Amino acid sequence: MNRYSKIINKIKREIVLLKARPCKWGRCTFCDYIEDNDRDDKRIDEVNFEVLKNVSGEFGVLEVIDSASVFELTENTLREIKKVVEEKNIKRLFFESHWIYRNRLDEIRSFFKVPITFKIGVETFDNDFREGVLKKGANFKDYREVQKYFDSPCVMVGIKGQTKEMIDKDMEIIKNFSHATVNIFMNNSTEIKRDEELVKWFVEKYRYLEDDPHVDILFEITDFGVG
Ligand code: SF4
């Protein structure tokens, strides 16, 4: 598994995939990456401290992802990230958090004292599909509720059961955010399946997003170079 990479298009940044405690939500029907979660803080920190040694600060921007929320990192790992931020002159961080932590994001902001882009995996703004099928546990009804807390929604496309209309709507909605990530769903060990026809349609219609500086588009889950 590769845990360090650089994103050299769009917002240039280093990215680390750290180990975390079990995702507090842990019920999304399409998710099997929580298999990277661990209950042993010592083991988590050992991995994370090694990964963080790679960060050079060359872009002044660091993204930290962890197969859970930033709140599931250990205290020692958070302190180590902060040390890296100070030593390597990092001026902006990207973190990810589940909706359930929306009222705690300021804790992270005041701890790190640099601007943070908070990402949230919403997968889709279609409430029925998000909650009924994907079981995301993010029970907002309107994107403006998300906007109150988060900077950057991550949406998923190409899942069986999703429709072109849902995706078109999601692509419209993400324009209201300063940043967004679009993931094309890849089959994994869960029951949720990719819809190849829908993916083909999407790639043809939305390939121009590759040139949109505000949108990261991941044709494969490992396109950020980690995973
Ligand atoms: S919130 Fe994220 S890590 Fe947790 S189960 Fe859902 S997709 Fe997986």
- Classified in CATH, the superfamily is Aldolase class I
N-to-C CA distance? 6 Å
Bin the strand percentage: 15-25%
Rg from Cα: 17 Å
Poorly predicted sequence stretches spanning 5 or more consecutive residues: none
CATH class: Alpha Beta
CATH architecture: Alpha-Beta Barrel
What is the residue-averaged pLDDT?
Answer: 96
**What count of helical segments does DSSP give?**
7
Shape: globular
The helix/strand class is: alpha/beta
CATH fold topology: TIM Barrel
Q: Estimate percent helicity.
A: 25-40%
Bound molecules: iron/sulfur cluster
Number of domains: 1
Please give a structural write-up.
- The chain is of the alpha/beta class.
- It has one domain: Aldolase class I (TIM Barrel, Alpha-Beta Barrel), CATH 3.20.20.70.
- Helix content is 30%, strand content 19%.
- Strand 7 (180-184), helix 7 and strand 8 form a beta-alpha-beta unit.
- Helix 1 (41-52) runs parallel beside helix 2 (75-87).
- The N and C termini lie close together (6 Å).
- The mean pLDDT is 96.
- Bound molecules: iron/sulfur cluster (SF4).
- Residues 23, 25-28, 31, 34, 67-68, 98, 121 line the site of iron/sulfur cluster.
- Iron/sulfur cluster (SF4) binds at residues 23, 25-28, 31, 34, 67-68, 98, 121.
- GO terms for molecular function: catalytic activity; iron-sulfur cluster binding.
- Residues 13-212 form the Elp3/MiaA/NifB-like radical SAM core domain.
- This is Radical SAM protein.
- InterPro entries: Elp3/MiaA/NifB-like_rSAM, rSAM_sf.
